[in-house]
Design a protein that fits this description.
heterodimer; A: mainly alpha; MetI-like fold; 2 domains; globular; B: alpha+beta; Rossmann fold; OB fold (Dihydrolipoamide Acetyltransferase, E2P); six-stranded mixed β-sheet; five-stranded antiparallel β-sheet; 23% helix; 34% strand; binds adenosine-5'-diphosphate; binds magnesium ion
């Protein structure tokens, strides 16, 4: 690889690129993480106590999380809700990606891709806030549903979890659609025809032929969506209610309201471990390797 | 089992482009029927209509007396072998073969019995657990055949299934396909641009050109009595000499070529003098003769190339005034040893071996040379 790089750019440029890469990886990614882990194993001390007998490594911060019922509940709820968000996003995106990749004409595909991407030119906070307006108690969605006679009184979308779920599915749509599209696009249409020719209906064709083929794409999309959902702050902060607090909000509180960086670091580290665990689990369930995800 | 396939006034257009012009065809039950034509003449389109993947612009498909218009692709009694095989790469060989049975809700032990039997039929006993990617081209080919046969179709549709194989394997698979067809009594509809394949395997062949049927006949008839100039040139080797009609009596036609003079052949249709026409004579019907032979249909040429083809020699000779070289097929024994490149040669052919057809009969087809 190094040789390919020097052949292409010459030695000085290649060395610069590599140095920058290593700088980014070590100084900006690995080191801060290590510092954070170090922080998480130390108590929050007053300046006067530093260097004193209490200044040593401890697992007290983690014990706080384990012993705090509310925080623990929110932690598990965040995991569960993120899984739900991931699943809903998959269900919404699969038909779209399949249509884009296999059925749409070039013009249709361009149009849909454009419609999907344009909203993402707007800042995430603003996009989320748009949903706040749409889902409001007196907002347009309730008005439409009432007008069509589906409901007889407005629904409080924003007081439960539904607002957060809808907002997140929307926020992370693209991160699911494009990996799925990539995987589905490489499917030979004759595979689908062959299955049909042998008598398979639509559902079986998807279940036995198309979904197995798209597995790496599904796994990649799920991993990205889950990580983004579990680590999301803006969506739950804007669309959530006190009952639908996200774990990231608690971490935020430790850092910026409680002023306890050590506790915040411990909470954040637990979330990181959780995400890595989730990736490992998904990869095992889908029987795919790291190399498949990069594709 | 009635597995006749009838096509009535069947046509297919994509936008302004007509891929298949209206045609009628009756394919018999248990017949090995081929569509032969150059790439792009509409063969795959026709197969896709029969299998239900395409809805024809007009006309009907009937299989075993049943109209297929309202039968979706996954309910038709047809089975297709795709041009690129389209085996399922994520399944094992056995799972591929059993897929159609799995769809029909047949139990696993029953399915296994069927796939074992079919693997034996295609000479792949014991390969059931292999991955598709671990098979050679010829083995994949045979798995595709087994997979298509597993659902016991009444009609097997084959889209140039042998085109990716090398010559030896292709010849081997030809006889295997023929053998399977004989044993199963399934109607085979076979598509190819390779005339050798069509002629050796088929009971009947439909020659197609630019979306039109040119001729439907037994292989021997196609070769001996081509109905159109397209068929004459596409099926087998042929020499073409263009001219115009000068005389016509009792099926014998005299034509005049500007530099070769008057030549004589036979024709099935009456042509008025002055009609532009082509005379076709097969390479094996041209004979090398000495100076003293009959003056009828005698040509003076110069030998250009001697191709050794194993069992015979294929000579190419040029004649002034004729753009394409004449091809002559000859035995080693009748070839004088003194005859070498650049030698003048005398050629004759029997008028009964030369077919004269009017130019206009090349309806929509044009001449096959240079195609495919
Ligand atoms: N879906 C389609 N849309 C437009 N044109 C098509 C389509 N399918 C086939 N054609 C055209 O129809 C003609 C016949 O194609 P095909 O049946 O695949 O030929 P063959 O199998 O004889 O090589 C070709 O010119 C091809 O470009
Ligand atoms: Mg084709």
């Amino acid at each position: 690889m190094l040789k390919a790089l020097t052949d292409r750019f010459g030695l000085p440029v290649s060395v610069t690129i590599l140095l920058l890469l290593w700088f980014w990886l070590i100084v900006l990614v690995i080191l801060p993480q290590l510092i954070m882990i170090d922080y998480s194993f130390r108590p929050n001390l007053l300046p006067a106590q530093m260097g004193g007998p209490e200044d040593g490594y401890t697992i007290g911060n983690y014990q706080t999380l384990a012993n705090n019922d509310i925080h623990r509940t929110i932690f598990f709820k965040t995991i569960w809700s993120s899984i739900l968000v991931t699943f809903l996003t998959l269900v919404v995106c699969y038909p779209v990606a399949y249509f884009l990749a296999q059925l749409a004409s070039t013009r249709q595909a361009m149009l849909i891709a454009l419609l999907l991407v344009i909203p993402y030119w707007i800042n995430e906070i603003l996009r989320t806030f748009a949903w706040y307006l749409i889902l409001a108690f007196q907002g347009p969605l309730n008005a439409v549903l009432l007008g069509l006679g589906f409901i007889d009184r407005p629904i409080r979308f924003l007081s439960g979890d539904s607002g957060v779920l809808i907002g997140m599915v929307y926020a992370y749509l693209l991160f699911m659609v494009f990996p799925l599209y990539n995987a589905l696009e490489s499917l030979d249409p004759n595979q689908v025809r062959a299955a049909r020719n042998l008598g398979a209906g639509t559902i079986r064709t998807h279940w036995r032929i198309i979904i197995p083929h798209a597995k790496p794409g599904i796994a990649t999309g799920c991993i990205m969506t889950f990580m983004l959902a579990a680590g999301s702050y803006a969506v739950p902060a804007l669309l959530g209610s006190p009952g639908s607090r996200w774990f990231t909000q608690i971490i935020y509180n430790w850092f910026f309201e409680g002023g306890d960086w050590h506790m915040g670091a411990a909470y954040a580290f637990v979330l990181l471990i959780l995400c890595i665990g989730f990736i490992a689990l998904v990869m095992k369930v889908f029987k795919i390797g790291l190399g498949d995800i990069g594709r | 089992m009635d597995s006749r396939v009838q096509l009535q006034q069947l046509s297919m257009s994509f936008g302004d482009f007509t891929a298949v012009h209206p045609l009628d065809l009756d394919i018999r039950s248990g017949e090995f029927f081929s569509f032969l034509g150059p790439s792009g003449c509409g063969k795959t389109t026709l197969l896709n209509i029969i299998s239900g993947f395409l809805t024809p612009t007009s006309g009907t498909v009937t299989i075993g007396g049943e109209p297929m218009a309202s039968v979706p692709a996954n309910k038709r009694p047809t089975s297709m072998i795709f041009q690129n095989l389209a085996l399922f790469p994520l399944m094992t060989v056995a799972e591929n073969i059993e897929f159609g049975l799995e769809v029909r809700g047949i139990s696993k032990p029953e399915r296994r019995k069927v796939s074992d039997r079919l693997l034996e039929l295609v000479d792949l006993t014991g390969s059931g657990d292999k991955r598709i990617d671990d098979l050679s081209g010829g083995q994949k080919q045979r798995v595709a055949i087994a997979r298509a046969l597993a659902v016991e179709p009444r009609v097997l549709l084959l889209d140039e299934p042998l085109s990716a194989l090398d010559l030896k394997l292709r010849q081997h698979m030809r006889s295997e396909l023929k053998e399977i067809q004989r044993r199963t009594e399934i109607t085979f509809i076979y598509i190819t641009h390779d005339q050798g394949e069509a002629l050796t395997m088929s009971d009947r062949v439909a020659v197609m050109s630019a979306g039109r049927l040119q001729q439907v006949d037994e292989p021997m008839t196609l070769y001996q009595n081509p109905a159109t100039p397209f068929v004459a040139e596409f099926v087998g080797e042929n020499n073409r000499i263009a001219g115009e009609v000068v005389g016509n009596d009792n099926g014998r036609v005299q034509i005049k070529h500007p530099s070769l003079g008057v030549l004589e052949g036979i024709s099935t249709e009456a042509m008025a003098p002055g009609t532009a026409c082509s005379l076709y004579v097969r390479p094996e019907r041209l004979r090398l003769v000495g100076e003293d032979a009959s003056p009828v249909n005698r040509l003076q040429a110069r030998l250009d190339v001697v191709n050794f083809e194993g069992a015979f020699l294929m000579l190419e000779s040029s004649i002034e005034g004729l753009s394409d070289p004449l091809k002559i097929q000859t035995e080693h024994s009748t070839m004088p040893a003194s005859l070498t490149k650049d030698h003048p040669v005398s050629l004759v052919f029997d008028p009964a071996d030369a077919l004269v057809m009017p130019e206009s009969a090349a309806e929509g087809g044009g001449h096959a040379q240079g195609l495919d």
